[in-house]
Design a protein that fits this description.
3 domains; SAM/pointed_sf; 2 strands; mainly alpha; Sterile alpha motif domain containing 3; DNA polymerase, domain 1; SAMD3; SAM; 222 residues
C-alpha cells in the first residue's frame, strides 16, 4: 500500500464500498503513502460522513496492524531486542521533550527541592516575592473596575428587595458587611481610600436607588 498510486487507492476504495470518496481522494491526490499517514483530524477534513470516517480509519488501522505483525521477529531474543530498542528511543524522546534536561533544574516553589547545604535557593525566595507582588497588583487592578456588591445576608436582602428604609441597626449591618468585603482589596491597609469608599457607595445606590431618599440614612454619604 505504501507504493500505491492515486488510481490504486481509488480502486481499493471501490473494493471496500467507499466509492463515494473516490472523487475527493482524486482531488486531494491521496496516494498510498498519504493514505497511511492520515490521522483522525485529516480524515475528518477529507471525509464528510461519520460512517465513512469510521470505516476508513478502521481499514487503515487493521492494515497497519497486519503489516506490523508480519514484520515482528519470530525469535524471542530478537523480539526482546526490538522492545528494548523502542523503550530506549521512547526514553530519549521524553528527555528531549521534557523541560528538565541536560542537568538543568527547574526552579520550584518548594524549599525542599532547592536545598543546598541547608540554604534555600535565593531564586525561590525572589520568585515568591514576585508572585506576591503580582497577586497584590492584580487585586489593585481589580479595584479599578466597577465594584460588584457582595451577596448580603438573607434579612438584608429581604429589606432591600422590599425597598424599605432600613432602621439604624440594619444600616449598621449593611455598612459592616460592605466593610468586611472591602478588606480583600486593602492590600494590608486598615482603611479604604476615599475613592474606594465612593465606589462602594455608588454601587450600593445604583443597585438600590431608594436608599438615596431622605430618611433612609444613606442620602448625601457620597
Amino acid at each position: 500500500m505504501e507504493t500505491w498510486s492515486v488510481e490504486q487507492v481509488c480502486s481499493w476504495l471501490v473494493e471496500k464500498n467507499l466509492g463515494e470518496l473516490v472523487q475527493r481522494f482524486q482531488e486531494e491526490e491521496v496516494s498510498g503513502a498519504a493514505l497511511l499517514a492520515l490521522n483522525d483530524r485529516m480524515v475528518q477534513q477529507l471525509v464528510k460522513k461519520i460512517g465513512h470516517q469510521a470505516v476508513l480509519m478502521d481499514l487503515i488501522k487493521k492494515y497497519k496492524q497486519n503489516t506490523q505483525g508480519l514484520k515482528s521477529p519470530e525469535n524471542p531474543k530478537e523480539a526482546a531486542l526490538v522492545m528494548q530498542t523502542e523503550a530506549a528511543r521512547d526514553n530519549r524522546d521524553e528527555e528531549t521533550c521534557s523541560p528538565v534536561s541536560h542537568g538543568e533544574q527547574m526552579p520550584s516553589f518548594y524549599p525542599s527541592e532547592n536545598l543546598e547545604d541547608g540554604l534555600i535557593d535565593q531564586r525561590v525566595l525572589k520568585q515568591r516575592r514576585n508572585v506576591k507582588h503580582l497577586l497584590e497588583r492584580s487585586k489593585a487592578l481589580q479595584w479599578t473596575k466597577s465594584y460588584v456588591l457582595p451577596e448580603f445576608p438573607y434579612d438584608v436582602k429581604c429589606t432591600l428587595a422590599e425597598q424599605k428604609c432600613p432602621d439604624h441597626s440594619m444600616r449598621i449591618r449593611i455598612i459592616e458587611f460592605l466593610q468586611a468585603d472591602m478588606t480583600k482589596y486593602l492590600e494590608g491597609s486598615l482603611y479604604p481610600s476615599t475613592q474606594q469608599y465612593n465606589d462602594v457607595v455608588n454601587a450600593l445606590l445604583q443597585a438600590h436607588p431608594f436608599l438615596d431618599e431622605d430618611g433612609c440614612g444613606f442620602a448625601g454619604v457620597q
